[in-house]
Amino acid sequence: RDFLFWVYTQFCRIKEMDVVLAIKRYISRMIEESGAGMKVLMMDKETISIVSMVYSQSEILQKEVFLFEMLVNSGRETMKHLNCICFVRHSPENVDLLCKEIKAPKYGSYFIYFSNMADKNSIERLAKADDHESVREIKEFYADFLAVNQHLYSFGIDHFSLSGYDYKRITEGLLGVFLALRKKPYIRIVFAFHMRTLITTVICLISHLIRYAAHSHFSERLAEDLYRSINHRQEKSLFEFRCDIPPLLLILDRKDDPITPLLNQWTYQAMVHEILGIKNHRVDLSNAPGIKKDLQEIVLSAENDEFFRENMYQNFGDIGASIKKLVDEFQDKQKSHAKIESISDMKAFVENYPQFRKLSGTVSKHVAVVSELSRIVSTHHLMGVSETEQDIVSQSDRGNHLKNIDSLIQNTEVREVDCLRLVTLFALRYESQLKNGELDKLLRALQKRGISDQRRRLVDLVLNTCGQSKRSGDLFQSSSNPLSMGKRLFRGLQGVENVYTRHKPLLAEVLESLAKGRLKDTVFPFAGKPLTEKPVDVIVFIIGGATFSEAHTVAQFNKANQGMRVILGGNTIINSQHFFDQIQRLDPYSGRERLRQPV
Question: pTM of the prediction?
C-alpha cells in the first residue's frame, strides 16, 4: 500500500510539471545506466549546482556513488575499478577536457551525459579521442536548470543581457526546461505593429504557444531566438511529444513589476532570502552574533527538510508557533531517549537514533534562522519600514508617505538599503504627481545619512528603467490598468488579514486573467487566430529574475486552480539587493539628463 501511494504521488508530481522530479529522473537514469557497483560522478561548476539542488550527498551515496570529482581537476587518482558518470554542460572547454580525459582514462568506463544539446562535431571529436574504447554512452539529458522548488526554476544568471554567454545559457536552459517537462515548442514568428514598434509575436502551430509582453525588446528577442534554436535543429524529433491542449510559455519582463522585489517579505522562504540571502539552498549565518560553527552555513531545501517544506509559505508570525511545536516535539523525544532501562529501550533508541539526530539538526537550524531574523527585524525596525512600504503601494497619501519616509530616514537604526527602497517606492508611486521638489528633499535626506552618490542615483535609474512610460500598465491605478483595473480599485475596500502583506505581485493578476480568458491581446498579443482553449500547462519566465514571493503566488494559484499547472522561472531568484545590482549594471553612469545637484 505504501509503495502504491508513493507511485501515485510521483505520478501526480509529473502531471503537475514538477521541475525537481524532472531533474531527479534524469540523474537516476544516469546512475542506473552505468550499472551496478561503485561509481564516481564527475561534474563541472554548473552541473554540480544542478545536482546538489535536488539531491543531498547522503542520498547520492545510497545510489552507490562514492566519489565526486570536478572535470577541470587534472590531479585525480587512477581508479580503474570505478565506472565514471560524467555529467557536464556541452561547451568547447568541456569537450576539450573530456577528450583529454578519455585519451588517458583514469576510470574503467565512462558514461557521458551532456545537460544540453551537443553538436555532431563534438561527438566525432570524442569518438576519435577514445583510443582505449572506455566510453560506453554519450547522451543528452536535459537537466540544464536549477530546480529551486517543485514549481520554481532558475539559471543562476544574475545579470541579464542580450549578448554573450549568459544570454546563450538562458536560451539553452529554457529549451532544457521544455524537453525535461516533455513540452514541444514548435514555433512560428509573425511580425506586427504595436505601440509604434516592430514586435515579434511567437505562436505555436502544433503543441506549444508563446505569448510575451509586447513592449519588451528583451521578450521579443528571446522569443525569436527560441524559435531559431528549435527550428534549426536537425533532431526535430526531440520535441515530438503528444499533447491535446497547447502549453503556454509566458515571457514577462521584470520592469513591469519593480515593486515586488523592492518590498520586505514576511513569508518564511521569501523573508530569509530578502534579509539573509539564499544561494542554491544555502544560507550564510556567519555574521549572526554567537552562532555555532556548525550553523554558520545551513541548507534550506524543501526536498530534504520536512519542516521547511510545510512552513516555507507561512507568515513570520506563524513560524514562531511552528518552531515552538517543533522544539516541544524534540524535547519529548529527548526525554524518552533519556530513559534507557532495558534491552528493549536500548534497541528502540538505536533504531530511532538517525531520526532523532535529524530532528535535532532541524530544530537547531530553524531556531538559529528564526532567531537571527527576529534580531534583525527588531534592531532595524523592519515592521515599521514594511508597514510604510505597504501603505505606499496600496493607497495614495503622498503627504503622509513623504512625512513617514523622512522620519524613517532620520532614524539611524533603519538600514540604508531600507531607506533607499522607501525613496524608490515613493518615486515609482508618485512619478507623475511629484511637485515642489518632494523627491529632491528625500534624496537630500539620503545624502545626510551618508548614502553615496552612486547609490542615490539608483532612484533615477529605476525610474528610467521601470518607470510608468516603460511599463505595460499602471501598477498604482492612477490610470487605466489593462490587466485588472477593477480589482485594484476595490482592493482597499475588501480589508486584509495582515497589514504587512497587502501587496500582491502583478503575476497574480496575470495568472488570474489568463485563467479567466481575459489576458488582453494588446498587452500579450497573438498573431493570426487567437488560442480559444484555456491552456492547461503554463511555463512562466521572468526576464530580470523571479522572486520567492511570486513563487508563493504560483503555489497558491496551482492549489486554487486544479485545471491548470503553472511553473515559474527567471534568470535568477532576486531580492531587493539583486534588483538594485541589476539596475546599476544596466547603465552605472546614467540617471536623468541632469543629475540632481546635492545640497
Answer: 0.85
